[in-house]
TrEMBL record:
EC number: 1.14.11.13
Entry keywords, A to Z: Dioxygenase, Iron, Metal-binding, Oxidoreductase
Pfam family, one: DIOX_N
Example of a GO biological process term: gibberellin metabolic process
Gene3D superfamilies noted in UniProt: B-lactam Antibiotic, Isopenicillin N Synthase, Chain
Catalytic activity from the UniProt record: gibberellin A1 + 2-oxoglutarate + O2 = gibberellin A8 + succinate + CO2
PANTHER family linked: 2-OXOGLUTARATE (2OG) AND FE(II)-DEPENDENT OXYGENASE SUPERFAMILY PROTEIN-RELATED
Presence of the UniProt keyword ATP-binding in the record: no
Lineage: Eukaryota, Viridiplantae, Streptophyta, Embryophyta, Tracheophyta
Name the record gives this protein: gibberellin 2beta-dioxygenase
Length: 352
């Protein structure tokens, strides 16, 4: 084990201070008491096949014409067949990724009361989130905490602290990557426009720093419940603990971590915009009884007023704007405890 690997291992296995974890068991005591051992469909951590997602070497985009076309084809095929792929040689310096992880760990080391006080960072008041207030059963509960940060908060920040400066550097590189991938996927559909450059700006995108604490009831709850992403693209930087799972051919599979890769997945908006060509698939995160897990997700989003319209006819989905989509998702979560998403916008929806 090298020095760098040893440092990463120590970070993941070393517990945070005792008062850093959210009070899951105390706050959700009634939910746990009523649900433990009563979940239907087996334990959440039933043995599931592990596989490696398609790995795409993005350096091919900077080589010969044949290499570029091959790389673009691989991106489009993975997005249509898997809805996920791993990107290596993605252009984001390792040093920025390591600093992002370091700053994230420091942030979550603060006592829970301080994280929940809304005074820890000069971000939106609801940026810190943990647990699942809407859960009515364990299958709707997420054993995790996160800082969900609109990048407008970063761009407006006058703070010169290391976290803000690191996020700005990370965002500057990952947004270029997201724009490049979106343009390639649009080109594959025969659409050459400035749609993404005009509508998915740094000011409309989000960054979510996730932490999944060790969980004493890991066989009963998810780290992040099954869901699809409500954006165009998500670019994920994760540690090597593992736990990410996705649906492929009707079965859950476990994603084998790749230390050299970023994970890219299609969101609901791209599935609707592509008229179902690219797939926004369900995914989830499993808990771990012994070690914590960290990840950083970049959500490539448009402005709330951006109209999402299928680029091919006949259209599967009716036109809607991003604000309407977000509001419908939030309404369903409040009413049902879970997201319904795109089926709500099918032109021949059978939902009530």
């Amino acid at each position: 084990m090298g020095v760098e690997d040893a440092n990463v291992f120590e970070t993941l296995t070393k517990p945070l201070r005792m008062d850093a974890d959210p009070p899951f068991e105390e706050t959700y005591k009634t939910l746990f008491q009523n649900s433990i051992g009563k979940a239907t469909g087996g334990k959440v951590n039933d043995i599931i096949e592990e596989c490696e997602l398609p790995v795409i070497d993005l350096s091919g985009l900077n080589r010969s014409k044949s290499d570029r076309e091959k790389c673009k084809r691989e991106i489009a095929e993975a997005s249509a067949q898997w809805g996920f792929f791993q990107a290596v040689n993605h252009g984001i310096p390792r040093e920025i990724l390591e600093r992002m992880h370091h700053e994230q760990v420091k942030l979550f080391q603060h006592p829970f009361d301080k994280k929940a006080s809304k005074n820890l960072l000069n971000f939106s008041v609801d940026s810190y989130r943990w647990g699942t207030p809407s859960a009515t059963c364990l299958r709707q509960f997420s054993w995790s905490e996160a800082f969900h940060i609109p990048l407008t908060d970063i761009s407006k920040s006058v703070d010169s602290n290391s976290l803000s400066s690191t996020i700005k550097e990370y965002e500057a590189t990952v947004s270029v990557l997201a724009q490049s991938i979106a343009a390639i996927l649009a080109e594959n559909l025969g659409v050459k426009s400035n749609f993404f450059a005009e509508n998915c700006l740094p000011s409309t995108c989000y960054l979510r720093m996730n932490r999944y604490p060790p969980c004493p009831i890991s066989s009963e709850v998810f780290g992040l419940m099954p869901h699809t992403d409500s954006d165009f693209l998500t670019i994920l930087y994760q540690d090597q603990v593992g736990g990410l799972q996705l649906v492929k051919d009707g079965r859950w599979i476990t994603v084998k971590p790749n230390p050299d890769a970023l994970i890219v997945n299609i969101g609901d908006l791209f599935e609707a915009w592509s008229n179902g060509v690219y797939k926004s698939v369900q995914h989830r995160v499993m808990t771990n009884r012994q070690v914590q897990r960290f990840s950083v997700a970049y959500f490539f989003c448009p402005s709330y007023d951006t109209v999402i319209q299928s680029c091919r006819e006949p259209s599967l989905y009716r036109k809607f704007n991003f604000r309407e989509y977000r509001q419908q998702v939030q309404e369903d979560v409040r009413a049902r405890g879970y997201k319904i998403g795109l089926p709500r916008f099918l032109l021949r929806s059978q939902l009530g």
